[in-house]
Amino acid sequence: MKAVAAWLVARPHNAVIALAASVAFASVPALSHLAAVSSIVLIAVALHDGIRRAVVKLVFAALIAVGVGMVAGIDPVLIVSGAATVWLPALLLATLTTVTRSLTLTMQLSVIIAVALMLAFLVAIGDAMVFWERILTAMVEVWREVGQDELADLVEPQMAAIAEYATMAIVLASWLIQAVSLALGYALYRLMPGEIADYGRFRHLNFGRVIALTMAIASVLSMFVDAVWLKSVAFIVFAAFWLQGLAVVHWMHARGILQTFGIVATYALMLVAGWIVMPALAVFGYTDAWFDFRRMMRQREKQG
Predict the structure, then answer these.
(1) How deeply is 189 buried, as exposed, middle or buried, from its count of CB atoms within 10 A (0-12, 13-18, 19+)?
(2) Predicted model pTM
(3) Cα–Cα–Cα angle for 253, 272, 24, nearest 5°?
(4) What are the 10-residue block averages of pLDDT along the chain, 304 residues in total?
């Protein structure tokens, strides 16, 4: 990891090559995961070089990516749209980090921005059910035309259920990818040579009681008001506390309370039983927002 960090800033064109290659090949469905790699690299480079220099590198990377795509037979529009989808949120997070000079505050703001964008989108489209049912109907028709009848038969009967929470699912997935990219990009930045600014550590992440209270209020109101947007707000904010739970686990490892095996086991279980482990971490993180387990454990260490 440290060698990669050093290589990215060794020469100006190294970061350009990494950004261009990752976003160009991410346009290929089998390599779509490279989009996250591009976000991580961009955040690290932007924090190290500054936002202006990072934007210049992005322009050159975009030109190279389009050229590579044309040679590989990939539609340039697909590459440009994909690059914008990946790079703009990452650039925003890097900018917020440099302005606030705090990883924790940037994470907090990212949750607020994600919820605000979701609500604005829901207001703009009016009836979300109708909007997504039209899109899903069109997708099912396309799948049948290309012979993907099994996929069409799977989605068509559940169209109403999918449409109801499609906005929430897309916003949540997008936020999770960008938030994890920020954490990894910041970690990569801290490994780069030269003067490194301290914006805090991931293990100290705390979304705070205000965001926790927002989730509680939205959850309670959703019991009495049948509104999808309320349930969506509550679920997205609750899911965000998964990162805080993970941060506490890392803090415990750094303090020697949890052995390395515990960290490895946590990540391994997230891969094989994420539907259990991630909600459990979210509950742990949400509880920590109210009771501050890290402070309590520090006090016990002092007393011991």
Answers:
(1) buried
(2) 0.92
(3) 90
(4) 90 92 78 85 96 94 88 80 91 97 97 96 91 92 87 88 92 95 96 92 96 96 91 95 97 93 94 93 96 89 72
